[in-house]
Amino acid sequence: xxxxxxxxxxxxxxxxxxxxxxxxYWAGGCVRDQLLGRxxxxxxxxxxxxxxxxxxxxxxxxxxxxxxxxxxxxxxxxRGAGQIEVATFRRDDSYSDxxxxxxxxxxxxxxxxxxRDFTINGLFYDPLNDEVIDFVGGxxxxxxxxxxxxxxPAARFSEDKLxxxxxxxxxxxxxxxxxxxxxxAIVQMxxxxxxxxxxRIAAEMRTMLCDTRxxxxxxxxxxxxxxxxxxxxxxxxxxxxxxxxxxxxxxxxETNSFAAALATSLLLSVDADQAxxxxxxxxxxxxxxxxxxxxxRNCRALDRAxxxxxxxxxRILVHDGSRELLAILRARVATGQxxxxxxxxxxxxxxxxADRLNPPPLISGDDLIQHGLPPGKPFRSLLHKxxxxxxxGQLTSRDQALxxxxxxxxxxxx
Length: 414
Known about the structure:
Layout: H1 3-19, E1 24-27, H2 29-35, E2 44-47, H3 51-58, E3 63-64, E4 72-76, E5 83-88, E6 90-92, E7 104-106, H4 109-114, E8 124-126, E9 131-133, H5 138-144, E10 146-147, H6 153-159, H7 163-174, E11 177-178, H8 180-189, H9 198-209, H10 214-224, H11 226-229, H12 239-252, H13 258-266, H14 272-281, H15 286-297, H16 310-317, H17 322-334, H18 340-350, H19 354-357, H20 365-370, H21 378-391, H22 398-410
Parallel strand pairs: 2-5, 10-11
Antiparallel strand pairs: 1-2, 1-8, 3-4, 4-5, 6-7, 8-9
Helix pairs in contact: 7-9, 7-10, 10-12, 12-13, 12-17, 13-15, 14-15, 16-21, 17-18, 21-22
């Protein structure tokens, strides 16, 4: 998606609503990002036009009414411009499930701002007149670098418990300070995050841990009690004992891999099975669960790599997760938790050509069958030992490998 085209589309959408006689402003994150000098990732528009009126302005073929019950209509842009959510000014009624309003009432811009989560997200912007409309003190909080709930923090979090995690994410991502009253409400209400779906929690954690300020995010999660609250209830994680070292690792981790960041958050506190349990608790994909557990299991596997049995190290370096494991090793070296010599050895081996680092096996199970050996459990051990000998440079041809296998088979059982 072209950022410039999307911005132009957001301006044009606002212009068309105004031309039709409605109020229309940019709302939420795109306003915050603009005032911070950041490129907005997407644009939302708030208006006094009702959903049916929005569809009349832009046409049925260019709009989607999936969220119309909550006053939200999606307007489809030209090629490369993406889409924009246009929402009618509304007031949310009670939140029985702690996640979604039971119903909404269409209202004014000021009341719409008051029902939003944080003051820095409650701003409106008129792109046609270059004017910020601020009913909640958000502009002042942006200047002071504060994340503050709009109105009563406990009320805002009672409406949608996920807002507690969002408060942490915004504070860390923007490198802001969390307002004391907002923070205290999170501390008091942290256990209530359990009503939020695992998928929504995982999405917030993915965003936090894939950001370069992930260390700050984890520290704030831990300090407010949210970290313990989003983990499986049966897992008692000794976060405090490993806290400082973990945060240092996260600060030095140079990858946007969610699995690597999650593994780094956990590797000083849990084993691979517990890491997998956390992944299942958050309903991560099987691939993410397996990769996270593999990284935790092998986080120290490259320590003293030059002194280890090369075939063992080689199998780790040719694993799909080796680059993520290397990023964790770099972070461990940077924080004094691993040796530079290990990193140098690993990087030197990874620079080898593929046919040297990971040459094709000299023999396979089919080769053993053709050689006259009956299929069975010993095949795995025979092939593994032949592969080790190949990686050590002791075998260089198929015939040598088969002769090696014959010697193994002829050896008397110990």
